[in-house]
Specification:
The protein is an alpha+beta fold. Helix content is about 25%, strand content about 25%. The strands form three sheets. It has a five-stranded mixed sheet. A three-stranded antiparallel sheet has the order 8-9-10, covered by helices on one side. Helix 1 packs across helix 2. The chain is globular, with a radius of gyration of 18 Å.
Length: about 200
């Protein structure tokens, strides 16, 4: 499961020598909803994916979520999912599905996947960037994921790039993702005096 600010992507993945996605789906409209209600929907979606994949059952759920995810699987803070702050997502998913669940920050999960099976396979040091609703990142150094003391390392989207710039839901001003995140790029284009008048771009 990939819990993002715009959608939640789910995939039934066979973890062989080369992982394969056997079935997939997307859940949207979750950002402002009660997280417990969303988890109930995710449990139903996961059950449907197991059936679509032709399995009797899934072995476990690996999940990544946008925001600061503590080591116990709680969403400590997520600027693009404000209603989820303080929500014990890992425990809630485990209870709703009856499966073992492991939750990480979505960028860390992406980095581990790319490091084990993707573009960074075989390297000991790599930097990863994710570009979407927000801007995220992670790093592997010396063959290990760099998580930081509290698990919050690698958040380039909330580095200040414009002093006293656009306010960010994280509480800072001038964060990188307020200028290059997908929502903000579209908003800036539509507000531009020339681009906003171009029907093709609009």
């Amino acid at each position: 499961m990939d819990v993002g600010g715009t959608g939640i992507k789910l995939g039934a993945v066979h973890l062989g020598e080369t992982p394969r996605v056997l079935a997939e789906t997307v859940v949207t409209g979750h950002a402002a909803r009660n997280p417990n209600a969303v988890v109930a929907d995710l449990a139903l979606a996961a059950t449907a994916l197991v059936r679509d994949a032709g399995w009797d059952a899934a072995e476990a759920i690996g999940a990544g979520s946008a925001g600061l995810i503590s080591r116990d699987g709680t969403v400590q803070f997520s600027p693009n999912l404000p209603a989820w702050t303080g929500f014990p997502l890992e425990a809630a998913l485990a209870q709703a599905t009856g499966l073992p669940v492991r939750l990480h920050n979505d960028d860390n999960a992406f980095a581990v996947a790319e490091w084990l099976w993707g573009a960074a396979q075989g390297t000991r040091d790599a930097v990863f960037l994710t570009l979407g609703t927000g801007i995220g990142g992670a790093a592997v150094a010396g063959g290990k994921l760099v998580r930081g003391h509290r698990g919050f390392a690698g958040e380039p989207g909330h580095a200040t790039v414009v002093l006293d710039g656009t306010p960010c839901p994280c509480g800072n001003r001038g964060c990188a993702e307020r200028y290059v995140g997908n929502r903000d790029l579209v908003s800036a284009a539509l507000a531009h005096p020339v681009l906003g008048k171009d029907a093709r771009l609009s």
